[in-house]
Specification:
It is a single chain. The chain is mainly α and 214 residues long. The chain has one domain (14-205). It is built from eight helices and no strands. It has helices spanning 12-32, 38-54, 61-70, 72-98, 102-128, 133-146, 148-167, 169-205. Helix 7 (148-167) packs antiparallel against helix 8. The longest helix is centred in the last third of the chain and has 37 residues, at 169-205. It is globular, with a radius of gyration of 19 Å. The N and C termini lie far apart (45 Å). Residues 1-8 have low confidence and may be disordered.
């Protein structure tokens, strides 16, 4: 007598994915609170999301904290550079806007776009590969210029809240509330769906033992 087949409950996959998004977003925001852990928390988010997108695992909590705990020291240079870049760019905007120097503001905007996009590649690289900080940032810059479509999506997903604030400020408060629940995780999911083929190609070229930041 054959065993009865297991029935799939309609919608269970959707609710599982939604729960994972909420949990990951909460964990990432929570672990970003000390500030010095920002890069580590974001990389842990991407490490788990890359596995979810590939269908390699459905666990989220244990893999997140496993990566977070293991890679804290390695993440510090990324966090420091991110904070310094943010302070310099923001200071430049305040200074040049006060002087009505639109040319300088335009140049600074271009620099900000490059910095955001480069880090948009660097954090997932850190999540996936085991390499030095210098090599990661160099590879991020190369991938940014070699994969323009993916870079454009990375830029949009990492700046849409800023654009919303500038274009539709009345809606920003409501959007910020929703972002607090799912924003970071949704961004990671969209980005991972775009970069997985790029990373898979890189892993096929990478000697064994030099991949997987976890």
């Amino acid at each position: 007598m054959s065993e009865p087949k297991t029935k799939t409950v309609p919608g269970i996959s959707f609710f599982t994915k939604a729960a994972n998004i909420l949990i990951l977003n909460f964990l990432c925001l929570l672990c970003c609170i000390p500030v010095i852990t920002i890069a580590d928390s974001l990389a842990a988010l991407y490490s788990v999301m890359l596995k979810l997108v590939r269908g390699e695992s459905e666990e989220v909590v244990k893999p997140f904290f496993r990566f977070f705990g293991k890679n804290f020291l390695k993440s510090i240079p990324y966090t420091i550079l991110m904070i310094i870049s943010f302070i310099l760019i923001l200071s430049g905007y305040i200074l040049f806007s006060y002087d009505d120097n639109m040319i300088a503001v335009g140049l600074l905007t271009g620099i900000a776009i490059l910095v955001i996009t480069c880090f948009g590649w660097a954090i997932p690289l850190f999540a996936q590969f085991d390499n030095s900080f210098t090599a990661m940032m160099t590879n991020a810059a190369k991938l940014m210029t070699m994969n323009l479509r993916e870079s454009a999506i990375i830029l949009i997903m990492n700046t849409y809240m800023i654009l919303l604030f500038l274009v539709v400020p009345d809606v920003f408060a409501y959007a910020l509330y929703a972002w607090g629940f799912v924003g970071l995780a949704i961004t990671a999911k969209v980005v991972c769906e775009q970069i997985v083929p790029v990373f898979d190609d890189l892993m096929n070229e990478t000697p064994e033992g030099e991949e997987d930041g976890e």
